[in-house]
Amino acid sequence: MADVRVMRGTVESGRIGSLVVAMHGLPERTLDRAAVLAWMKDGHSLIPVVGGHRLPALQLVEVGEELFVRTDNAPEAEDALPAFD
């Protein structure tokens, strides 16, 4: 599976609006929330990069019947990203 670096992203009303990601040798691309969930379900690791440092991978957390993308495993019904520069 790919090691996908998350360069920046937005959360709007508790849901990811978009993530800008990069993979070795490829240009950056923007993913919407549906694509982020699909990539994570396929087993890709999404690694936030803040200030040039790699942080722990984002987590896919199930709350009830829904999936959320978080920086931790907290069972909260909203997406959470680190503070990007």
Notable characteristics:
single chain; 85 residues; mainly beta; 5-stranded mixed sheet; two-stranded antiparallel sheet; 1 helix; 11% helix
Q: What would you say this structure looks like, in words?
A:
- This protein has 85 residues and is mainly β.
- 11% of the residues lie in helices and 46% in strands.
- It contains one helix and seven strands; from the N terminus they run βββαββββ.
- The protein starts with a strand and ends in a 15-residue tail after the last strand.
- 16% of the residues are buried.
Strand arrangement within the widest β-sheet reads 3-2-1-4-5
**Strand composition percent:** over 45%
**Regions with pLDDT < 50 over 5+ consecutive residues?**
none
Apparent shape: globular
Average pLDDT, to the nearest integer?
Answer: 95
Q: Summarize the helix and strand pattern as letters.
A: EEEHEEEE
- What kind of sheet is the major sheet? 5 strands, mixed
Termini gap: 27 Å
Domains, number = 1
* Helix-strand makeup class: mainly beta
Gyration radius from CA atoms, angstroms? 12 Å
E-strand count = 7
Number of helices: 1
- The residue fraction in helices comes out at 10-25%
